[in-house]
Design brief:
There is one protein chain. This protein is α+β, with helices and mostly antiparallel strands. The chain has a domain of about 240 residues: Dipeptide-binding Protein, domain 3. It is built from eleven helices and 16 strands. The protein starts with 11 loop residues before the first strand and ends with a strand.
């Protein structure tokens, strides 16, 4: 980026042919350091040898012949969009910890087809689509894990329409209680959410303890949040405080379908229907359709254009190995601002948490994170709706080291072993 003028000040250094050194600007746990250095190295000789004549591009890494692999397994066969094969690397420093001789990846774009191949015994691992969850409900081969998608409604607090209605807590509470999360969950194969920290976030990475597994009496039951009567009481109070009698609420959404996030559009459609029914005659809900590649940018608070959007459904992607990362976005100094939220007490708790050592002061950090989460939920800085999960199956007889998905590690599939092999 051109910020460092002297190579002596660069934090990464090659000490010798077998030693690589990294200097960090804060104290790291062993897990932090390991993940920070988990980077793929490039064979510079091969990279240069595959450069185009004008030296503007390289075909490095596009075939077995133009790629050098390393680590526990080596790439030995690669058929684009069809198959690639890994063979165990006997020279790997921890080769004794890996038991598979060969791993064959078959490219199957359709999840239903992949599951059919799994059931025929032609694959040893497959994702399970939502429509098939019930069929595998009691199958011991089924495992579940949570990914990055805890979905929130982002509410543009700074929007000046309707005398600042969106910045009114009673109005946000009305949206909170009027959403039927159970209907969304049963329709889309997701889980209702009532908190801000997703299930994949670890409280203690060294022990694999999830933040949401630590008791928190401020978290309501996500299955019992729907309360239409209370929602209408809240919206009436909000209208009284803002001096209005009705409003139009826009939900920001993209103009094209994306299979990876199709649940978001479906959830927005359901929310629009629910709100229009639950607030009949008081509020009209409609879509604000924009180019799909602009939704993430447009759903951020912009002080130069405060009425750019009303609400949007989306997720945040903080680090899952440090619970403090979830709260980074809500700092008053976060730039560019994600939300129109600023609170000195919250800022002080966040800075205090960040001043502590994640491993040595873990209990105190968790308490501070819980205080921050409770405050943000009380004020509904964002409104939590649902969390997506993925279910997969492993062939009978294959043993995975972890029967519970560990953030940053997964099931450690490559270090598994067969009963009979």
């Amino acid at each position: 980026m051109g910020e460092v003028k002297d190579w002596a000040d660069v934090g990464y250094k090659k000490i010798d042919d077998y030693t690589f050194q990294a200097t960090f600007n804060r104290v790291l746990t062993q897990y932090d350091a390991t993940m920070a250095l988990n980077r793929t190295l490039v064979n510079d000789t091969l990279y240069l040898a595959n450069m185009t004549e004008d030296k503007t591009a390289t075909t490095y890494g596009t075939s077995v012949e133009t790629y050098t692999s390393c680590g526990p397994y080596e790439l030995v066969e690669w058929i684009t969009d069809a198959k690639y094969v890994l063979k165990k690397n006997p020279d790997y420093v921890f080769a004794d910890e890996y038991f598979l001789d060969e791993i064959i990846f078959t490219v199957v774009p359709d999840s239903s087809t992949a599951l059919q191949l799994f059931q025929k015994g032609e694959l040893d691992y497959s994702a399970v689509s939502y429509s098939m969850w019930e069929s595998f409900e009691d199958d011991p081969r089924l495992y579940e894990y949570y990914n990055d998608s805890l979905m929130y409604m982002f509410v543009n607090w700074g929007n000046t329409n309707y005398n600042g209605l969106l910045g009114n807590l009673n109005f946000r509470q009305a949206l909170y209680y009027a959403a039927d999360r159970n209907e969304i969950a049963s329709t889309l194969g997701v889980y209702p959410a009532s908190r801000l920290v997703r299930k994949a976030v670890l409280a203690d990475a060294t022990k694999g303890i999830a933040f949401v597994d630590i008791p928190a009496d401020y978290v309501p039951d996500p299955y019992s949040l729907l309360d239409v009567e209370k929602a209408n009481q809240k919206i009436d109070k909000a209208y009284e405080q803002c001096g209005i009698t009705e409003s139009v609420l826009r939900i920001l959404t993209g103009d094209t379908a994306n299979p990876a996030t199709s649940h978001v559009r479906a959830a927005c459609e359901m929310l629009m229907k629910q709100y229009n029914e639950h607030f009949a005659g008081k509020m009209t809900v409609e879509f604000q359709v924009v180019p799909s590649n602009q939704t993430t940018k447009l759903r951020r608070y912009n002080p130069d254009d405060p009425t750019a959007f009303d609400t949007a459904v989306g997720s945040l992607l903080p680090s899952a190995k440090d619970p403090r990362a979830t709260f980074n976005f809500y700092q008053s100094t976060y730039s560019p601002p994600r939300f129109c939220y600023a609170d000195q007490t919250f800022d002080s708790w966040y800075l205090e948490a960040m001043s502590l050592d994640l491993q040595k002061d873990n209990e105190e950090i968790i308490k501070l994170c819980q205080k921050m989460e409770e405050k943000l939920l009380d004020e509904l800085a964002v409104i939590p709706f649902y969390e997506t999960a993925t279910k997969v199956v492993f062939a009978e007889g294959y043993n995975i080291p972890y029967d519970k998905y560990v953030t940053g590690i997964g099931f450690d599939t490559y270090q598994g072993w067969w009963d009979a092999k």
